[in-house]
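INFO batch 0412 | record 1 of 1 | parsing
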Amino acid sequence: MIGRNLLLAALGLALALPAGAQTSALEKIRKQGAVTLGYIEGAAPFSFTDSTGEPQGYSVDLCRAVADGLRDQLKRANLQTRWVKLTIQNRIDAVRRGEVDVECSTTTWTLGRQALVDFSLITFVDGASILAKAGTDVSHLTDYKGKRIAVISGTTTERVLRDALAQRSINAQVVTIKTRDEGLALLNESKVEGLASDRITLIGVVARSPKGGVFKLLDEDFSIEPYALVLPRGDTDLRLAVNRVLARLYRTGEIRPIYDRWLGPLGPPSLMLSASYFIQGLSE
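INFO prediction complete | emitting tokens
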């Protein structure tokens, strides 16, 4: 009888423990001796692959710093880094399924997504805009009445674009696409009059396009997009470990060489981004 009671007590304790405590990503990283990082292509200068197939970009460098920080925090000098290529469509699910420990691209932190995953400290602040051919008669969102706008399906940009069009009673056709490169091709071929995405990534897709072309951005943004690294929901140990690294980068100014490497040609950090770095430079 005592043995049965002990068994029931042990079972009750196991059920009472939160699921994350049993399958901590940080503990998994420690045991496997490797951290798995996800990235996507076509989101330069934040996340893309270079001519050798290696992931590069601002968000990628932040995750490299995170990997270095985990080596120190876990006292595992031989901790390996594994990179997994994801898509905009599967990046959230990849974190939820444990296929990657951290997702490193241009994911916007929203409350809806936070019901599925967790987020690090904010890593960048951008605004959603629309890319158009130079010389066309569009400068504001209201100029798109009766026109076509391409946008990647399933993104926050698609949702806020549709909301902005509805709020302003703008009768524009939203054309969903899978990648920014696909949208740029449609724009070049005049099959759409605009390509909607985050402002910096629009500049990046034009800069990397082999076809060239002359384009312009709208004079207004129709949303604010706070980027953050995506983490497993409820895994407080991993979130703390990642945030320790980011806060140190912000607090010490080590973020600036990373910013300058990838975003420097576009100008210094905006006032909003500088404030974000300052506020999030938390002390130990």
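INFO post-check: The domain at 22-125+225-279 is CATH 3.40.190.10 (D-Maltodextrin-Binding Protein; domain 2).
INFO record closed
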